[in-house]
Amino acid sequence: ETQLNIEKIRKDFPILHQEVNGKPLVYFDNAATSQKPQCVIDALTHYYNTDNANIHRGIHTLAERSTTAFENTRKTVGKFLNAAEAEEIIFTKGTTEGINLVAATFGRKFIGEGDEIIISALEHHSNIVPWQILCEEKKCVLKVIPVNEKGELVLAEYDKLLSERTKLVSVNYISNALGTINPVQEIIDKAHAVGAKVLIDAAQATPHARVDVQAMGCDFLAFSAHKVYGPTGVGALYGKRALLEAMPPYQGGGEMIKDVSFSGTTYNDIPYKFEAGTPNIGEVIAFKAALDYVNEIGLENIAAYEHELLEYANELLADVEGFRPIGTADQKASVVSFLIDGVHPFDLGQILDAKGIAVRTGHHCAQPLMEIFNIEGTVRASFSVYNTKEEIKYFVEALKSSIKMFKK
Ligand code: PMP
Q: How far are the Cα atoms of 21, 102, 163, 218 from residue 109, in angstroms, in the given order?
């Protein structure tokens, strides 16, 4: 049983205290985005009320304040990931942009014709399509680690895919579609053994597991603030210094340059080399408030409590008529993806919404994975630290009565 005071945590999230369709909101769509605590909302309004100014260029007081707060987030993200230096943290729009940045810079420069990139069958579209685009341009080859019927990666097949032609392995740490926790350490070590670099998509991992880039030894890692209680439109890309320095810039513009002239331009040092233009300053600043909030509760405490919720949900769901879980990996976090025999996921989602319950239905941006399971999509309930066993109980009862309605 958790030592966390969940009632107190719930009070930090104003959005939770409302009725939806006449019922108390039950928010189980955390794998799409999490809700924001008051401290994050306050950080945003504080910035716009008192500090708003463009960063890095101004010498006036507001510019100094906003620059300091912006760079403090970089330090906090660096510590959150245990990066060796804050300069190894690049601000992005989110995971998607982080992966695209690596494809457009590292990929364009270091991956050529006949080279190979390995991803997995569990990937989000954002960790598939950028590599398809690169492969089309560079005539490199995309290979896919398969999954077994439980939704776990088949590492024996991964071994067969690896070779000296492998330049990059890019996989997620935790699957947003099924909740599978992947054996990233083994994946990283094996990639390094053949000289390949590794990018970890930690979008679904950072809210639910401790991520330590130095311990893992990954070369790149991308995540989004909005899934870790922070604002939308902001994320971070970690990269090892030597790699980031060897990579060409991403976008051209202000901030990413040292000197510009028509006879030639020199680029700024990392991380600024990759941060062209005015960023999402207020949202970056509020991102720090989100990570401070997580650190205060403790990621290990959050993960342990969410595991309790997951076990409880599995226990109750096992008793639901026609329940068919999709993804039954031994190592899972926070997500139950399922079908109910004879009921379309979309219909279930609508009926649950009428009872105030927010779940996700569909392919969860992982269409190739759905194809492997020979389904169009699932119903996905994904939990966060502010969810409760009472909510899960209410959800399962709602599910049972919805099924009865459909079976009439
Ligand atoms: N990868 C994974 C595993 C995800 O869960 C998500 C978000 N659902 C993404 C990538 C994309 O993140 P974003 O849309 O924030 O860029």
A: 53, 10, 20, 19
